[in-house]
Structures are given as C-alpha cells and as structure tokens.
C-alpha cells in the first residue's frame, strides 16, 4: 500500500526523539486510497506532532472491513515497505519480477533503493485488516539495488496467553531474518483476554505502539500507564528498559522502535529523498517511464504522477 493522494504535501522529517520516557497518544487522519470509493486507511505517521519513530516514517492502518484493494503500479525510492496482514490476502507484484500472495502472519518486505515500482490487489472482495509501513533508508544505503523478501515463517516468543512475532530486528533474543539498514525493531504482540506480558526494550531506541485490535493497558517503569485501542499510535519516547502489556479482552498491538534517525528526509507522494531537486527528478522519471521498470501481470494502467506543489518543496524544521 502506498500514498495515493491526488494532492500530496511534502513532509520534511528528522529524528525527533524525546530523550526520556513519555506517553504521547497520536491520533491519525483518515485517507481514502484510490478515489472517493477507495479503501479508507488511518494514517498515524507522519503526524503533525511527530514525524518518525526511529527510521519508521509512514504508517497506514486499515480494517477490519469488507473491501477490495486495488493499487495500480506506482513508484518508490529511498525506503522499504512493510506489509503485514491480520485478515485477508493481498497479491504483490513488482518491477524486479516478484509475484507473491501475502497472507496473515507473513511478512512482505520490499526495498525500493534507487527505484522500484509495484502493485497490490486483493483477488476478491473480502475482509481486509492490516497495516502498511515505510522505513527510511539511510543516506549510505538509499541507492541500493531494489529487491523483495517474503518471510512466511518468523521467530516468536511469549508466555501462556501471550505471543510475540518479531517482524524485523531483534527482541528479547529473537531475531528476524528480514534485512534492515538501521538498528530497529518491529513486532506484533497478541494477547488473550486478561493475559499479560513484560517486554524488554532497548533504552537507546525510541519506541511506539500501534493498536490493532482489542483494548490493551500499557505500563512502564514507574511512570504511569496508558490504554490503547485500535487506530492510534502511542509514542513511548526513549530511555525505557521494559513495558508491560495487559489485555482487557483479546487484542493485538504492533511494537515499533529504532535508534533516532538523525538525517533529514523529504517525503512527497511515494518518494523519500533529501532535496527538492531529487524529488522533482524522481517524479519526472516516473512520468516519462524511465528508471522504475515495469510491473508485469497487473490488469490496468500505472498510477499517474501528481503535480508538484506550486510552492517549492523545502525543509520546514523538526515539527513541520
């Protein structure tokens, strides 16, 4: 899934980590993908209050709802896309020749590098429930060769009533096989009703929790508590060594974290770059059919590039 807004605004982002632990609940905004009859998602990153969590720079949460996903071929640069489903099936195709059906509990990780294009679609109307995330690539690796990974089996840990699946990075000794380019972590925590789990965290990381289902109470190291329901993103700051999660009823949350990303980035449409000139060049390459390759097998035309904003894209500081 990607940014299909017809009038996307540029987002200039840098690491905005809080040095100590915080409880900062970020409410997302509704975005309809693919026009007025498209699928609705809740976008919590980038957010007006906070642009990034580690290298995580984009979060779309959707469902559960009966819908058809149909995202035509579109471009990406300078990032990785992470597709994670709780319900439904989505078919991925890309310009490096990948064709992969993703199912719940399986990880699709696409590294755009210098340039890639891809499509995503559900094969029929069905209940869809999932999340799409982007990870900004650091300057030294953002021009790597584009590639795609599918991981049907991922490491898990937990205790009775609680299960943790490690999507990316490492958590409590369990390491994902997926390739990353900055120190980070991504994990789904699933809890039965009244179940509880205490998770170790890296104090040097900033962390956040995204509610996926149910009602989850979160407590930290003697600094209060917060309740999380589906949709919002709870930013936890840095400096935490543990959090405890307890489910009032069966539920799931997504843990995201990483070392604060110190580089400044510009996000516009589906591109992550460093300068306005780069963004304009990426758009021109997509509009003219160069650099991004061809997605074979999708029945439809590629997504046209939106018009660049009249006001020149330029840095706007840490908080927009």
From TrEMBL:
Fe cation binds at residues 74, 76, 118, 120. Binds 1 Fe cation per subunit. Its cofactor is Fe cation. SUPFAM superfamilies: RmlC-like cupins (SSF51182). It holds the Pfam family Pirin_C. Keywords: Iron, Metal-binding. Residues 39-135 form the Pirin N-terminal domain. Residues 187-290 form the Pirin C-terminal domain. One of its GO terms (molecular function) is metal ion binding. Coiled coil: none annotated. CDD domains: cupin_pirin_C, cupin_pirin_N. Transmembrane segments: none annotated. It comes from the Bacteria. The keyword Hydrolase does not apply. Belongs to the pirin family. This is Pirin. It comes from Planotetraspora thailandica. The lineage of its organism: Bacteria, Bacillati, Actinomycetota, Actinomycetes, Streptosporangiales.
